[in-house]
Amino acid sequence: MLENEDVINTYLEKTCDAESELLKRIARETYLRETMPHMLSGHFQGRVLAMLAKLVKPKRILEIGTFTGYATLCLAEGLDKEGVLHTIDINEELEERVQRYFDISPFGDRIKYHIGDAAEIIPEIEGNFDLVFIDADKKRNLYYFETLIDRVVSGGLLLIDNVLWKGRVLTDHPDSQTKKVIELNETVAKDSRVEKLILPIRDGLFVLRKK
């Protein structure tokens, strides 16, 4: 539909709110220092996450897949004044740098940064969530959905990233990773506990509202 994706993305970024100086710094340093910088949510998707969080005004957020903390800080913009955001990542090599980003942000005292296997850490975090963002190992996304859906409050949001998988969900001969994404999408599409739609931004963002 769009002949030049880069041009439209530039336009989208120009017509939404600007990034903070800290978010610009995180993006710049991610592209300079990381081997897979495309994992960063980026300017436009970051504004989408911030907008959704502000609409929900969550007291409790759970994020699976911190990476360099860009999306974390976008989601934190919508936190209730006494809210808390738990974020989990398995890459301990990034811990010191990402924690530094959080510490200098306005939300440092409300972000709880966990390093380790999300499947082991999630049961250790007590309580329910108003917003969950899943952006980690795609092969385990269905597991995360099924584990967390009953811990999302009524009216809360569960967001899952990369559900279009660079368009490979439409291929006739999907590889094993793509099959997992397709299985997730088909399972969620049939789940009557949530209202759902996929926003076709970047690599596809599944937005689920708990009934």
Automatic annotation (TrEMBL):
Domain of life: Bacteria
Single GO molecular function: O-methyltransferase activity
Annotated SUPFAM superfamilies: S-adenosyl-L-methionine-dependent methyltransferases
Example GO biological process: methylation
Sequence intervals crossing the membrane: none
Pfam families named in the record: Methyltransf_3
InterPro entries in UniProt: Cation-dep_OMT, SAM-dependent_MTases_sf, SAM_O-MeTrfase
Signal sequence coordinates: none
Protein name: Methyltransferase
UniProt source species: Sphingobacterium haloxyli
Keywords, in A-Z order: Methyltransferase, S-adenosyl-L-methionine, Transferase
